[in-house]
């Protein structure tokens, strides 16, 4: 009887191996490419072999068997680089005007978000860190391969105090009773209003339970919000510490919305590791960021041809002008003190605005060489993303071209290290877009 069972087990293993052998991982070979590896190197005339979802070999003269399970792409000297990433994005805000969020149901808003997800990937952004919004359903559908979109490091709902940047009520809103009902924005998962240490801890834990990879907390005033000025600090030290401590129990971190010195300093004192925005910091605060070894997730938001239009003289326009007036200085301080700087766009309010994602990246040429800004939008951003530790939904190295790394790749017609403006026109210049070893765009013959 025992011998019979052994033969059955052996037969099962043989059949299992046979099935596996009949379904090998698909191989894609990209030949004769210039390679920007995501750090500072550009090498010419290299081949890259992708098997499954990983880069398995880089070299010259790589050969593969050509059959139905393989594909060869001749780069013809074009530039191969890692997929672009955005460290500060709001997928659920990207393709819709802010006020429309409050007059449409969650079904419509989710479909708009799914539309934005596909458009984001087709601009060559293969990963985003989503810092606020009910994006978990879209992320799950993307990860299951059912819809098209980038990898998403999701925060879930904003954590905000009453009157904070994530309190969407109008300034004349009635007081809310203790033990209150949830606001519509809270029911949809857009925001969570929490006052006091116990509420903050509860809301952070809820986001972690939902699948947040990092936590987003509002630490200071915002531009588009109707009731909070930029000079205020939001949350007390104890409340902010509570958010940081709860995130740490899940081996991840807190990112905060903060423009001003007072907001940034309050967050740093509480142990926050990611300062998002920071356009209004002074030199002393830049030094403090360096001392705390924190990240500055900064966006090149300027009062230029792409400025957000607010009514002349409005409260929001005044705040926008004050914030953008500090952008130049913030980047200069970041370079002076060698801060860990991530790239993000924070683009919102419609597909025409979101379509400028690559153009926003090229604006960094005011302060950085092309290889520096491309490194920031690839391997450097991934250093920040990976701070979520075991909460990382995409284990493996990314943001680089090296053997063993995940295959998120772009093939660009031209050399962006010589002409960075190529990045601003992905429709014409990005010939191949690959995420996780799968080709989503290939316009080469």
SSE topology sketch:
Elements: H1 2-22, E1 27-36, E2 42-51, E3 54-59, E4 70-74, E5 79-82, E6 84-89, H2 91-94, H3 106-122, E7 125-130, H4 136-143, E8 151-154, E9 158-160, H5 184-187, E10 191-193, H6 197-210, E11 215-218, H7 237-249, E12 254-258, H8 261-269, E13 274-277, H9 283-291, E14 295-298, H10 315-324, H11 327-336, E15 340-343, H12 351-354, H13 357-362, H14 370-385, E16 409-412, H15 426-429, E17 430-435, E18 438-442
Parallel strand pairs: 1-4, 1-5, 6-7, 7-8, 9-10, 11-12, 12-13, 13-14, 14-15
Antiparallel strand pairs: 1-2, 2-3, 5-16, 16-17, 17-18
What does this structure look like?
It is a single chain. This protein has 445 residues and is of the alpha/beta class. It folds into two domains: 13-83 and 399-442, Urease, subunit C, domain 1 (Roll), CATH 2.30.40.10; 84-391, Alpha-Beta Barrel (TIM Barrel), CATH 3.20.20.140. It has helices at 2-22, 91-94, 106-122, 136-143, 184-187, 197-210, 237-249, 261-269, 283-291, 315-324, 327-336, 351-354, 357-362, 370-385, 426-429, and strands spanning 27-36, 42-51, 54-59, 70-74, 79-82, 84-89, 125-130, 151-154, 158-160, 191-193, 215-218, 254-258, 274-277, 295-298, 340-343, 409-412, 430-435, 438-442. The strands form four sheets. Strands 1, 2, 3, 4, 5, 16, 17 and 18 form an eight-stranded mixed beta sheet that branches. A hairpin with a 2-residue loop joins β17 (430-435) and β18. α6 (197-210) packs parallel to α7. The longest helix is centred in the first third of the chain and has 21 residues, at 2-22. The radius of gyration is 23 Å and the shape is globular. Residues 1-24 have low confidence and may be disordered.
């Amino acid at each position: 009887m025992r011998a019979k069972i052994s033969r059955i087990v052996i037969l099962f293993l043989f059949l299992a191996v046979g099935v596996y052998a009949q379904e090998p991982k698909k191989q894609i070979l990209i030949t004769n490419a210039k390679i920007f590896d995501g750090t500072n190197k550009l090498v010419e005339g290299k081949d890259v072999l992708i098997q499954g979802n990983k880069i398995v070999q880089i070299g010259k003269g790589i050969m593969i068997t050509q059959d139905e399970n393989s594909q060869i792409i001749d780069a013809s000297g074009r530039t191969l680089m890692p997929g672009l990433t955005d460290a500060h994005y709001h997928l659920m805000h990207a393709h819709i005007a802010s006020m429309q969020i409050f007059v449409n149901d969650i079904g419509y808003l989710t479909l708009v978000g799914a539309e934005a997800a596909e458009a984001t990937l087709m601009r060559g952004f293969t990963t985003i860190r989503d810092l606020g919004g009910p994006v978990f359903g879209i992320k799950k559908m993307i990860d299951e391969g059912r819809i098209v979109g980038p990898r998403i490091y999701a925060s879930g709902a904003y954590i905000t105090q009453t009157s904070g940047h994530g309190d969407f009520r109008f300034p004349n809103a009635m007081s809310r009773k203790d033990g209150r009902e949830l606001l519509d924005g809270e029911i949809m998962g857009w925001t969570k209003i929490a006052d006091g240490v116990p509420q903050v801890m509860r809301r952070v834990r809820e986001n972690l339970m939902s699948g947040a990879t990092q936590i987003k907390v509002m630490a200071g005033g915002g531009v588009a919000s109707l009731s909070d000025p930029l000079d205020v600090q939001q949350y007390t030290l104890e409340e902010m510490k509570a958010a940081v401590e709860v995130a740490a129990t899940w081996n991840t971190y807190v990112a905060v919305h903060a423009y001003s010195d007072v907001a940034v300093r309050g967050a740093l004192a509480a142990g926050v590791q990611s300062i998002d925005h920071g356009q209004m910091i002074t030199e002393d605060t830049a030094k403090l960021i360096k001392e705390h070894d924190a990240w500055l997730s900064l966006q090149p938001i300027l009062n230029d041809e792409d400025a957000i239009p607010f009514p002349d003289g409005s409260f929001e326009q005044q705040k926008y002008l004050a914030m953008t007036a500090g952008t130049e200085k913030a980047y200069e301080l970041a370079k002076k003190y060698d801060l860990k700087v991530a790239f993000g766009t924070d683009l919102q309010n419609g597909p025409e605005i979101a379509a400028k994602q690559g153009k926003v990246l090229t604006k960094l040429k005011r302060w950085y060489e092309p290889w520096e800004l491309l490194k920031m939008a690839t391997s450097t951003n991934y250093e920040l993303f990976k701070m979520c530790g075991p909460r990382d939904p995409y284990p493996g190295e990314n943001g680089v071209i090296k053997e063993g790394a995940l295959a998120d790749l772009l093939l660009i017609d031209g050399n962006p290290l010589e002409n960075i403006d190529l990045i601003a026109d992905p429709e014409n210049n990005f010939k191949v877009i690959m995420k996780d070893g799968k080709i989503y765009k290939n316009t080469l013959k």
